[in-house]
Write a structure and sequence with these properties.
Layout (H helix, E strand, L loop, with lengths): L2 H16 L3 H11 L8 H14 L2 H8 L11 E5 L9 H9 L3 E5 L5 H14 L7 E3 L8 E5 L2 H10 L5 E4 L3 E5 L6 H12 L9 E7 L8 H4 L9 H16 L5 E2 L4 E4 L9 E7 L2 H10 L4 E5 L23 H6 L3
Parallel strand pairs: 1-2, 1-4, 2-3, 4-5, 6-7, 6-11, 7-10, 9-10
Antiparallel strand pairs: 8-9
């Protein structure tokens, strides 16, 4: 297939996903959540909408135009997918196929159903992709690998795949910076960055920085829109657990009724908790964030990624700021 044919195939996939009815998505969710209790209808719909958002033909053409793919020597690229949020490994699959390589896919056991479903759709829309994708339990006889996991699994990946080109991703999180002048609409959109996927994604905001003297409680009414999150039993268990821990240990905290706010220097908050920290100046805060850049996926704020857009990356917004397409286009 040439570049134009691949772009057309994925553009059609985007259209197919965009046309799914709520009932069809509900059917997908009912099967997916049998393996992963965190996979809700809202989360799966959000993930599918994000993929459809990526796959507009003009975006695909703009994205691909930056790379020299005509002379790519096809390789077998292993893709180890995470399962923390629905279809989080799609971009790696897309990049591998559109760059002309063979995708040896190892889905997460937590997201196997949806991964299989999307691959089926790809192959139905463009049957020639059938010879370019294989689901594997073990990634042997591969030429390169893109693997996403925890800090612990990353050490295993780095050892196991030490002899081949690789992109190995570790745990990351995202933060938001408020300046005190945000509108109610912006604060409500920040709630989307915090609560989507129950906060399980690396692009979810787990910590908010506010200027010294700012009363963070002023933002709480804007978070009311998301209070239904506490009705999910797994989220509620986390919220209740940390609330009891804070009460027993007399840890100062704020409580919205569905989110706990803990002021701390730490970066990665548990589910049901949002970390908070004041800053004296933007320059000092920037220096602090620079010192933690290996753990931060993205920054949300008026001068950064717009509020509410953390989980809507464009094709060129690469995880860990590592250009996957550059990596794939330069494989020897």
């Amino acid at each position: 297939m040439n570049k134009s044919e691949k772009i057309n195939a994925f553009s059609e996939l985007g259209k197919k996903i965009a046309q799914l009815t709520d009932q069809e998505i509900e059917n997908l969710a009912n099967q997916a959540k049998q393996k992963n209790g965190w996979f809700s209808f809202e989360g799966i719909k959000n993930a599918l909408n994000g993929i459809s958002f990526m796959l507009e033909k003009e975006k695909l053409e703009k994205w691909i135009s930056k790379y020299e793919l005509a002379d790519v020597n096809p390789k077998v690229v292993g893709i180890v997918m995470a399962g923390n949020i629905p279809l989080v490994g799609f971009h790696d699959l897309l990049s591998t196929l559109i760059s002309g390589h063979f995708a040896a896919v190892k889905p997460s056991s937590e997201d196997r159903f949806l991964t299989h479903q999307v691959i089926d759709w790809i192959q139905e829309l463009e049957p020639r992709f059938k010879k370019n994708i294989e689901i594997r339990e073990r990634l042997t006889n591969i030429d390169a690998v893109i693997a996403t996991g925890s800090d612990n699994t990353a050490r295993y990946f780095e050892y196991y795949f030490k002899d081949i080109p690789s992109i190995i991703r570790k745990n990351r999180t995202s933060v938001a910076i408020l300046n005190g002048n945000e509108s109610n609409e912006e604060l409500e959109a920040l709630g989307e960055d915090i609560f989507s996927y129950f906060g399980l994604g690396c692009r979810n905001v787990s910590k908010v920085f506010t200027p010294k003297g700012y009363d963070f409680r002023d933002a709480f009414p804007s978070f009311e829109k998301y209070k239904e999150v506490a009705n999910h039993h797994k989220y509620r268990n986390n919220y209740d657990y940390y609330k009891s821990i804070y009460l027993v240990n007399q840890t100062p905290h704020l409580d919205t009724g569905h989110l706990l706010i803990n002021s701390t220097d730490e970066l990665v908050s548990p589910i049901g908790v949002l970390f908070h920290q004041e800053y004296d100046s933007i320059d000092k805060l920037q220096a602090l964030l620079d010192s933690k850049k290996e753990k931060i996926q993205c920054i949300v704020g008026q001068d950064f990624i717009p509020f509410g857009k953390a989980q809507r990356p464009e094709l060129w917004d690469y995880a860990d700021d590592v250009d996957t397409m550059r990596f794939l286009s330069e494989l020897e």
